[in-house]
Amino acid sequence: MGFVVRPCAVKDLKDIMRLVEEIAVIYNIPVNKVATSVEVLKKHGFGEKPRFECFVAEVPPEQKSKEGHTLIGYVLSAYTYNTWRGKNLYMDNLYVMPEFRGRRIGKTLASTAAMAAWQKGCTQLRMHASADKPENIEFLKRQGGENLTETEDWNILRFYNPVLRGMAAQSKF
C-alpha cells in the first residue's frame, strides 16, 4: 500500500475534524461535546502564531477508504517546555483509521513528528494514552516510549473549563 505523510494544509482541516470526530466516537464522547472546529483549527494552526503542528497521512485515490476518503490519519502536536529537560513535543493525537492500521502509517506519522521535534531542538516527546486502549500503549512502547505510570507512578491531571475559570478568578495577576 502506498501512502505519503506530509505537513497538514488548511485544505485538510475538514478531514482532520472528521478524524477528530471518529476518535470522539471511539472514546464515547458525544460529537456535540467536541469544542474544536475547522475554524478553530485554522486559527490556531495557521494563524499569526501557530499553536500546533500537524502531519497527515494520505493514500492515492485508488486506495481510498470505504467511505471515499484519501486522508486516513494524522498526528497533531504542540511544543511545550519542561524545566528539567527543556523544549519538548507533546503529541496530542496520533490516529489512523482502523481499516488502514497495521501498515506502518502510525509509525511513519510518529517518526515524522519526532523528526520535526528533533530538528527544532527538542529533548523529548510526550504523549498520554488511555488505559482503556492497551493496544495504543503497546504501540507507543514498541516505538520506544516509556510508560511513566508504570516506571515512575506519574499521573496526568486535567482542569476543565469551570475549574480553570475558578482558578483564574483567584489570581492576583
From TrEMBL:
<protein>
    <submittedName>
        <fullName>Thialysine N-epsilon-acetyltransferase-like</fullName>
    </submittedName>
</protein>
<dbReference type="GO" id="GO:0008080">
    <property type="term" value="F:N-acetyltransferase activity"/>
</dbReference>
<dbReference type="InterPro" id="IPR016181">
    <property type="entry name" value="Acyl_CoA_acyltransferase"/>
</dbReference>
<keyword id="KW-0808">Transferase</keyword>
<dbReference type="Pfam" id="PF00583">
    <property type="entry name" value="Acetyltransf_1"/>
</dbReference>
<dbReference type="InterPro" id="IPR000182">
    <property type="entry name" value="GNAT_dom"/>
</dbReference>
<dbReference type="InterPro" id="IPR051016">
    <property type="entry name" value="Diverse_Substrate_AcTransf"/>
</dbReference>
<feature type="domain" description="N-acetyltransferase">
    <location>
        <begin position="3"/>
        <end position="162"/>
    </location>
</feature>
<comment type="similarity">
    <text>Belongs to the acetyltransferase family.</text>
</comment>
<keyword id="KW-0012">Acyltransferase</keyword>
